[in-house]
Design goal:
Elements: E1 15-19, H1 31-39, E2 42-45, H2 48-57, E3 64-67, H3 73-85, E4 90-93, H4 106-114, E5 118-122, H5 127-135, E6 142-147, H6 152-160, E7 168-173, H7 175-188, E8 193-198, E9 206-211, H8 212-221, E10 230-234, H9 244-256, H10 261-272, H11 276-288
Helix pairs in contact: 3-4, 6-7, 7-8, 9-10, 9-11, 10-11
The structure holds S-adenosylmethionine.
Length: about 290
């Protein structure tokens, strides 16, 4: 296999590299990630013991590891800012996937950006994108919702707030909450299509799809599969014919502002998640009334 051209193997002094690591399969580490992790002066990691194992597997030895997690991030950010200001090169990794995506790092990156320190992303795996790429759901627009609240009442309230969401929705879930969570999905989104992606990139990777109730039934019949990590994907609301009354109101309001038909169609189509051509037709109809 030809090794792809690496953009630059010279690291910048005083720069933080935000490096994505695999979400299960070690083969998903990128050439650039290994290059950067090998060359930096230190690596800030969520769990240093966990990351030490990854570095060993990658053949990167004796690297200075600094813990950075949700309980020490603010103080650590100041310390790492000072180190970078002296010209040191650092990397940030999390236990799996892309840092900052439901993982620590936001406080650090914010502080560095405010202080004009370079922050360079080294992209790679993330469970949300990995799941979407093979689930067979609409991916042109999606809403990433991360983890739902742990308590059922709050979870149901969060789900109810998404009832009219027309974009595909993506959630992260842990195995011990999966079944309770799915019950709450069925209470709020009865009959809605969903896909549960399990243990992505690992030996027992699986995509379970169907209505919320069918997915629940599958896991009830296969309790041994309620193991590992999960991404829950929920299809967005499909607008019914009647929902066009809502469009009509919006279209009429924009027509009253004398906006061009094309612009109105674009705004309404994007707002309602509908096809531009159909909205365009409706705008013309209403304009002629
Ligand atoms: N930063 C990570 C990313 O970029 O995806 C997410 C970290 S978050 C703390 C961990 C959650 O991500 C898990 O509970 C699960 O919902 C999801 N996840 C991580 N790895 C996964 C995998 N291999 N298969 C399915 N879901 C995964």
């Amino acid at each position: 296999m030809t090794r792809p051209t690496v953009h630059s193997s010279e690291l910048e002094n005083g720069c933080l590299y935000v490096v994505a690591t695999p979400i299960g399969n070690l083969g998903d580490i990128t050439y650039r990630a290994v290059d950067v992790l090998t060359k930096v002066d230190w690596i800030a990691a969520e769990d240093t013991r966990h990351s030490q194992k990854l570095l060993q597997a990658l053949g990167i030895a004796n690297k200075k590891l600094i813990s950075l997690h949700e309980h020490n991030e603010e103080a650590r950010a100041q310390q790492l800012l000072k180190a970078l200001q002296t010209g040191e090169k650092g990397a940030l990794i999390s236990d799996a996937g892309t840092p900052l995506i439901n993982d620590p790092g936001y406080q650090l990156v914010k502080v560095l950006r405010q202080s004009d320190i370079s922050v360079v992303p080294i992209p790679g795996a993330s469970a949300v994108i990995t799941a979407l790429s093979a689930a067979g759901v609409a991916t042109d627009r999606f809403a990433y919702e991360g983890f739902l609240p742990a308590r059922s009442t709050k979870r149901v309230a969060s789900l109810e707030a998404l009832l009219d969401e027309t974009r595909t929705m993506v959630f992260y879930e842990s195995p011990h909450r999966l079944m309770d969570s799915l019950q709450d999905f069925s209470e709020v989104f009865t009959g809605r299509k969903m896909v549960v992606a399990k243990e992505l990139t690992k030996q027992f990777e699986q995509f379970v799809s169907g209505s919320v109730e069918e997915v629940i039934e599958y896991f009830q019949q296969n309790p041994d599969r309620v193991r590992g990590e999960f991404v829950v994907i929920l299809s967005g609301k499909v607008l019914e014919k009647n929902d066009s009354t809502m469009n009509d109101h919006l279209i009429k309001t924009l027509l009253a502002q004398s906006l061009p038909v094309k612009q109105i169609s674009e705004i309404v189509a994007s707002y309602e998640g509908q096809k531009k051509k159909a909205v365009y037709q409706r705008v013309l109809e209403l304009k002629e009334v």
